[in-house]
Amino acid sequence: MPISGGTIREIDEAKESDNAKLVEAVLFISGRFLTMQELVTHTDLTPMAIKDAIERLKGQYDKIDSAIEIAEKGELWKMGVKSEHSNLINKLATGRSEFSKAEQETLAIIAYKQPIKQSVVIKIRGNKAYEHIKKFADVGLLKKKKMGHTWELSLSEEFHDYFSLKDRTEIEGETKEETAEEKIGGENQLKEELKEV
Asked: Which terminus of the chain, N or C, has fewer Cβ atoms within 10 Å?
């Protein structure tokens, strides 16, 4: 029995739908930005099939005016809630699963002391902070400026968007400590460590 053009389109459509569901499940479960390599590893799909699936999901979410979106930062993707619903999410969320406690502490130090030399952060947090800083820069949360043999680190505008913070220039009567550090899980212990620096 010959296969018609309609049957081939139906098979292709079903495969694309399955691919989109697979990518959607991986993004949903991860709760963090994933690289293309991570998506390939978890889905066993080709990069082209993954990009097609992401575009399909974005279209579906837009079509139904969903509160869910696929956020893209460079070559990183994450499923999340649209920014207009961030106040509700902040009330419900008890923490940010995307960053480990150690990463949160590193980011809190940078937020509290910015601009700060990378070498100072490493001195406070240890060599593991190199990985943390790279991750934050890759996601776009930090700005890095070459300063001699090290980097000067400061928060990017995306940091404020990501953690649903006011722009620093709009904050009245609040300190960086109260806005940035509290949002990303900073603790009193960090304040004591920072006083020694």
From this structure: N
Separation of first and last alpha carbons in the chain: 78
List the chain pLDDT tens, one digit each, 197 residues.
555 556 888 877 888 889 999 999 999 988 788 999 999 999 999 999 999 999 999 999 999 988 889 988 888 999 988 878 766 666 565 554 578 888 888 998 998 888 899 999 999 899 999 999 998 898 888 999 998 899 999 998 888 777 766 655 443 344 444 445 454 544 445 555 555 55
Fold of the 5-92 domain:
Arc Repressor Mutant, subunit A (1.10.10)
Distance, in Å, from the CA atom of 180 to the CA atom of 172, rounded to the nearest integer, reads: 14
Q: Taking the model in full, what pTM does it have?
A: 0.49
